[in-house]
Protein backbone atom coordinates (compact mmCIF):
# COMPACT_ATOMS: atom_id res chain seq x y z
CA UNK A 1 0.00 0.00 0.00
CA UNK A 2 2.83 2.35 0.82
CA UNK A 3 4.47 1.83 -2.60
CA UNK A 4 1.12 2.40 -4.27
CA UNK A 5 0.64 5.68 -2.46
CA UNK A 6 4.12 6.84 -3.52
CA UNK A 7 3.35 6.10 -7.15
CA UNK A 8 0.13 8.13 -6.95
CA UNK A 9 2.00 11.09 -5.45
CA UNK A 10 4.65 10.92 -8.17
CA UNK A 11 2.04 10.95 -10.94
CA UNK A 12 0.25 13.89 -9.34
CA UNK A 13 3.52 15.86 -9.26
CA UNK A 14 4.20 15.09 -12.93
CA UNK A 15 0.70 16.25 -13.91
CA UNK A 16 1.14 19.51 -11.96
CA UNK A 17 4.43 20.26 -13.71
CA UNK A 18 2.96 19.58 -17.15
CA UNK A 19 -0.06 21.76 -16.34
CA UNK A 20 2.18 24.70 -15.36
CA UNK A 21 4.20 24.41 -18.60
CA UNK A 22 1.06 24.41 -20.75
CA UNK A 23 -0.27 27.49 -18.98
CA UNK A 24 2.99 29.40 -19.56
CA UNK A 25 3.04 28.52 -23.26
CA UNK A 26 -0.47 29.91 -23.72
CA UNK A 27 0.45 33.26 -22.17
CA UNK A 28 3.51 33.63 -24.40
CA UNK A 29 1.43 33.13 -27.55
CA UNK A 30 -0.49 36.41 -27.11
CA UNK A 31 -0.22 38.34 -30.41
CA UNK A 32 1.17 41.87 -30.35
CA UNK A 33 1.64 42.46 -34.08
CA UNK A 34 -0.87 42.98 -36.91
CA UNK A 35 -4.00 40.88 -36.54
CA UNK A 36 -4.15 37.80 -38.74
CA UNK A 37 -7.40 36.77 -40.35
CA UNK A 38 -9.24 33.94 -38.61
CA UNK A 39 -9.01 30.47 -40.15
CA UNK A 40 -6.73 31.75 -42.89
CA UNK A 41 -9.42 34.06 -44.28
CA UNK A 42 -7.95 37.34 -45.59
CA UNK A 43 -8.98 40.86 -44.62
CA UNK A 44 -10.37 43.48 -46.97
CA UNK A 45 -11.50 47.08 -46.47
CA UNK A 46 -15.20 47.66 -45.86
CA UNK A 47 -15.50 50.61 -48.25
CA UNK A 48 -19.17 51.18 -47.34
CA UNK A 49 -18.19 52.07 -43.76
CA UNK A 50 -15.06 54.14 -44.50
CA UNK A 51 -15.06 57.60 -42.87
CA UNK A 52 -13.04 60.59 -44.10
CA UNK A 53 -12.52 63.48 -41.68
CA UNK A 54 -10.56 66.73 -41.91
CA UNK A 55 -9.64 69.46 -39.45
CA UNK A 56 -8.88 73.05 -40.48
CA UNK A 57 -7.81 75.86 -38.15
CA UNK A 58 -8.89 79.48 -37.62
CA UNK A 59 -7.78 82.25 -35.19
CA UNK A 60 -4.14 82.81 -34.22
CA UNK A 61 -4.54 80.23 -31.43
CA UNK A 62 -5.59 77.58 -34.00
CA UNK A 63 -9.18 76.77 -33.08
CA UNK A 64 -10.24 73.57 -34.83
CA UNK A 65 -13.01 73.39 -37.45
CA UNK A 66 -13.96 69.80 -38.26
CA UNK A 67 -15.68 68.41 -41.31
CA UNK A 68 -15.96 65.52 -43.71
CA UNK A 69 -16.90 64.68 -47.31
CA UNK A 70 -20.03 62.60 -47.83
CA UNK A 71 -19.18 61.58 -51.38
CA UNK A 72 -15.92 59.79 -52.15
CA UNK A 73 -14.87 56.56 -53.82
CA UNK A 74 -12.16 54.26 -52.47
CA UNK A 75 -10.35 51.92 -54.87
CA UNK A 76 -8.39 49.01 -53.35
CA UNK A 77 -6.62 46.14 -55.05
CA UNK A 78 -7.86 43.31 -52.87
CA UNK A 79 -7.18 41.49 -49.62
CA UNK A 80 -4.37 40.73 -47.20
CA UNK A 81 -3.63 38.09 -44.56
CA UNK A 82 -3.18 40.90 -42.00
CA UNK A 83 -4.97 44.18 -41.36
CA UNK A 84 -2.16 46.08 -43.12
CA UNK A 85 -4.15 45.91 -46.36
CA UNK A 86 -3.05 49.14 -48.05
CA UNK A 87 -0.87 48.67 -51.09
CA UNK A 88 0.66 50.86 -53.83
CA UNK A 89 -1.94 51.86 -56.36
CA UNK A 90 -4.85 52.03 -53.91
CA UNK A 91 -6.58 55.38 -54.34
CA UNK A 92 -9.38 57.65 -53.21
CA UNK A 93 -11.33 60.23 -55.24
CA UNK A 94 -13.19 62.91 -53.26
CA UNK A 95 -16.06 65.06 -54.51
CA UNK A 96 -15.32 68.41 -52.86
CA UNK A 97 -18.89 69.64 -53.44
CA UNK A 98 -19.96 67.09 -50.82
CA UNK A 99 -18.11 68.96 -48.06
CA UNK A 100 -20.01 68.69 -44.78
CA UNK A 101 -19.28 70.59 -41.56
CA UNK A 102 -22.74 70.26 -40.08
CA UNK A 103 -23.44 73.90 -40.97
CA UNK A 104 -25.18 74.47 -44.32
CA UNK A 105 -24.21 78.15 -44.59
CA UNK A 106 -20.55 77.35 -43.95
CA UNK A 107 -20.63 74.44 -46.42
CA UNK A 108 -21.98 76.71 -49.17
CA UNK A 109 -19.23 79.26 -48.53
CA UNK A 110 -16.61 76.53 -48.69
CA UNK A 111 -17.92 75.42 -52.08
CA UNK A 112 -18.18 78.94 -53.55
CA UNK A 113 -15.27 80.81 -52.02
CA UNK A 114 -12.75 78.03 -51.49
CA UNK A 115 -13.08 74.97 -53.72
CA UNK A 116 -14.27 76.89 -56.79
CA UNK A 117 -11.38 79.33 -56.41
CA UNK A 118 -9.06 76.36 -55.90
CA UNK A 119 -10.37 74.86 -59.19
CA UNK A 120 -10.78 71.50 -57.47
CA UNK A 121 -14.07 69.71 -57.96
CA UNK A 122 -12.25 66.54 -56.95
CA UNK A 123 -9.22 65.62 -54.86
CA UNK A 124 -7.36 62.41 -55.61
CA UNK A 125 -4.98 60.51 -53.37
CA UNK A 126 -2.94 57.49 -54.46
CA UNK A 127 -0.82 55.21 -52.27
CA UNK A 128 2.81 55.13 -53.44
CA UNK A 129 4.44 53.22 -50.58
CA UNK A 130 2.88 51.19 -47.76
CA UNK A 131 5.03 50.06 -44.84
CA UNK A 132 4.12 48.57 -41.47
CA UNK A 133 3.06 51.88 -39.89
CA UNK A 134 4.03 54.58 -42.40
CA UNK A 135 3.87 55.25 -46.10
CA UNK A 136 3.79 57.82 -48.88
CA UNK A 137 0.94 58.96 -51.08
CA UNK A 138 0.49 61.42 -53.92
CA UNK A 139 -2.20 64.01 -53.41
CA UNK A 140 -3.63 65.89 -56.39
CA UNK A 141 -5.22 69.27 -55.62
CA UNK A 142 -5.57 72.34 -57.87
CA UNK A 143 -4.13 70.36 -60.81
CA UNK A 144 -0.90 69.89 -58.83
CA UNK A 145 0.41 66.62 -57.39
CA UNK A 146 2.66 66.38 -54.33
CA UNK A 147 3.94 63.48 -52.26
CA UNK A 148 2.97 63.45 -48.59
CA UNK A 149 3.88 61.14 -45.73
CA UNK A 150 1.17 59.36 -43.79
CA UNK A 151 0.96 57.17 -40.72
CA UNK A 152 -1.53 54.51 -39.83
CA UNK A 153 -2.45 52.58 -36.74
CA UNK A 154 -4.94 49.88 -35.87
CA UNK A 155 -7.75 50.17 -33.33
CA UNK A 156 -9.40 46.77 -33.05
CA UNK A 157 -10.42 45.98 -36.65
CA UNK A 158 -10.21 49.56 -37.96
CA UNK A 159 -7.19 50.93 -39.77
CA UNK A 160 -6.72 54.69 -39.17
CA UNK A 161 -4.65 56.64 -41.69
CA UNK A 162 -3.56 60.16 -40.72
CA UNK A 163 -1.63 62.89 -42.50
CA UNK A 164 -1.25 66.66 -42.53
CA UNK A 165 -0.93 69.00 -45.48
CA UNK A 166 -0.08 72.64 -46.14
CA UNK A 167 -2.23 74.05 -48.95
CA UNK A 168 0.57 76.42 -49.87
CA UNK A 169 2.26 73.39 -51.45
CA UNK A 170 -0.67 73.25 -53.90
CA UNK A 171 -0.73 77.01 -54.53
CA UNK A 172 -3.82 77.35 -52.41
CA UNK A 173 -3.11 80.84 -51.05
CA UNK A 174 -5.69 82.51 -53.32
CA UNK A 175 -8.45 80.16 -52.17
CA UNK A 176 -7.50 80.63 -48.50
CA UNK A 177 -7.53 84.41 -48.85
CA UNK A 178 -10.85 84.27 -50.72
CA UNK A 179 -12.55 82.31 -47.94
CA UNK A 180 -10.96 84.42 -45.22
CA UNK A 181 -12.26 87.63 -46.83
CA UNK A 182 -15.78 86.19 -47.00
CA UNK A 183 -15.60 85.00 -43.38
CA UNK A 184 -13.40 87.83 -42.06
CA UNK A 185 -15.29 88.45 -38.83
CA UNK A 186 -15.98 84.76 -38.23
CA UNK A 187 -12.24 84.07 -38.43
CA UNK A 188 -11.37 86.88 -36.01
CA UNK A 189 -10.17 85.69 -32.62
CA UNK A 190 -10.06 87.43 -29.23
CA UNK A 191 -6.89 89.27 -30.29
CA UNK A 192 -8.76 91.04 -33.12
CA UNK A 193 -6.78 89.24 -35.85
CA UNK A 194 -8.64 87.37 -38.62
CA UNK A 195 -6.72 84.21 -39.48
CA UNK A 196 -7.31 81.07 -41.55
CA UNK A 197 -4.40 78.63 -41.47
CA UNK A 198 -3.21 76.81 -44.63
CA UNK A 199 -2.58 73.57 -42.71
CA UNK A 200 -5.17 70.78 -42.61
CA UNK A 201 -5.13 67.45 -40.76
CA UNK A 202 -6.76 64.47 -42.44
CA UNK A 203 -7.96 61.18 -40.99
CA UNK A 204 -9.26 58.18 -42.93
CA UNK A 205 -10.89 55.39 -40.92
CA UNK A 206 -10.88 52.08 -42.79
CA UNK A 207 -12.95 49.30 -41.17
CA UNK A 208 -11.62 45.79 -41.84
CA UNK A 209 -13.81 42.81 -42.66
CA UNK A 210 -12.94 39.15 -43.07
CA UNK A 211 -13.40 38.07 -46.66
CA UNK A 212 -15.14 34.70 -46.47
CA UNK A 213 -15.05 34.21 -50.24
CA UNK A 214 -11.41 34.82 -51.18
CA UNK A 215 -9.01 31.99 -50.37
TrEMBL record:
Query: Which N-terminal residues, if any, form the signal peptide?
Result: 1-23
Q: Which residues form the Lipid/polyisoprenoid-binding YceI-like domain?
A: 43-176
Q: Gene3D superfamilies this protein is in?
A: Lipid/polyisoprenoid-binding, YceI-like
Family annotation (SUPFAM superfamilies): YceI-like (SSF101874)
Q: Which InterPro entries match?
A: Lipid/polyisoprenoid-bd_YceI, TTHA0802/YceI-like_sf
- For the keyword Protein transport, the answer is no
One Pfam entry for this protein is YceI
Ordered alphabetically, the record's keywords are: Signal
Q: What is the protein's given name?
A: YceI family protein
- Origin species, per record, is Pelagihabitans pacificus
Lineage runs: Bacteria, Pseudomonadati, Bacteroidota, Flavobacteriia, Flavobacteriales
Amino acid sequence: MKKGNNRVLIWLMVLMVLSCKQSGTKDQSTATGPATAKSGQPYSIDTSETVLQWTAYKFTNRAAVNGTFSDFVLFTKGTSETTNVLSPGDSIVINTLSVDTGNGIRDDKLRRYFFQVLHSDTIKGTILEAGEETGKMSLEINALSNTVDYRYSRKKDTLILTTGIDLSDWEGEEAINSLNRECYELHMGPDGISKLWPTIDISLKLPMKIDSVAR
